[in-house]
Design goal:
- With 198 residues, this protein is an alpha+beta fold.
- The chain folds into two domains: 55 residues, no CATH class; 136 residues, ATP-grasp fold, B domain (D-amino Acid Aminotransferase, Chain A, domain 1).
- Helix content is 25%, strand content 27%.
- The chain has five helices and nine strands; from the N terminus they run ββαββαβααββββα.
- Strands 3, 4, 5, 6, 7, 8 and 9 form a seven-stranded antiparallel beta sheet that branches.
- β8 and β9 form a beta hairpin.
- α3 crosses α4.
- The longest helix has 17 residues.
- The radius of gyration is 18 Å and the shape is globular.
Length: 198
């Protein structure tokens, strides 16, 4: 078994590491505790290293995903809450592919859609970037429907208008001979995703 990532609730993620002069300063005990937590979660895992990456800026958290339904085929899901999506239960689902107008309509179907506007002194969220991500993901799922069982982008942080989105974690479940095979894509940098083709 190869451990590519561990969820923050497994204590193997160390957040808010201080940076000095663009060089990350990481305490050895932080790495040791993260590795120990990972080994505790998956004792037989082969750990090849430690990934250090920038902390995503704050914003509104959502989940965006694809699930393959036996009747409908690939369906795109968008929901509020990111890591709290299950607790909030505020999701909308549609068959793929979607265009920009359909993606916007799907976001508007969320009960808590008002948080994307001017909310409690915050600037409006970058709905254009969120819907662009939804459209691209839906097209990718449509194009690879025979290969992909599910895609989970969670959390996706929607920043202020004009600042894009950040996909903090991504998991692709690939279909292989009827069995699901997991591929963890890890974090995706916002600006790169929004300007490069998927």
């Amino acid at each position: 078994m190869k451990l590519a990532t561990v969820s923050p609730d497994k204590a193997a993620v160390v957040a808010r590491i201080k940076a000095e002069r663009a060089i990350a300063v990481i305490r050895t005990d932080s790495i040791d505790s993260a590795l120990a937590a990972a080994k505790g979660f998956a004792p037989t895992a082969q750990i090849d290293g430690v990934l250090v990456q920038p902390m995503a800026a704050a914003g509104r958290e959502v989940i965006v995903g694809i699930n393959h339904d036996l009747t409908w085929g690939p369906l795109l899901l968008v929901g509020l809450g990111g890591v709290l999506a299950e607790a909030l239960g505020d999701v909308a689902v549609a068959p793929v592919p979607l265009d920009q107008a359909q993606a916007r309509a799907l976001v508007r179907r969320l009960k808590g859609a008002d948080i994307f506007g001017r909310y409690r002194g915050q600037a409006p969220a970058d709905i254009e970037a969120l819907t662009w991500l939804m459209v691209r993901l839906s097209q990718f799922a449509y194009d690879h429907a025979e290969e992909i069982s599910a895609i989970d982008l969670n959390p996706v942080i929607v920043h202020d208008a004009g600042d894009g989105v950040t996909v903090v974690d991504a998991l692709i479940t690939k279909r292989r001979g009827g069995a699901a095979e997991l591929h963890d894509a890890g974090s995706v940098e916002t600006k790169a995703v929004l300007h490069d083709s998927v």
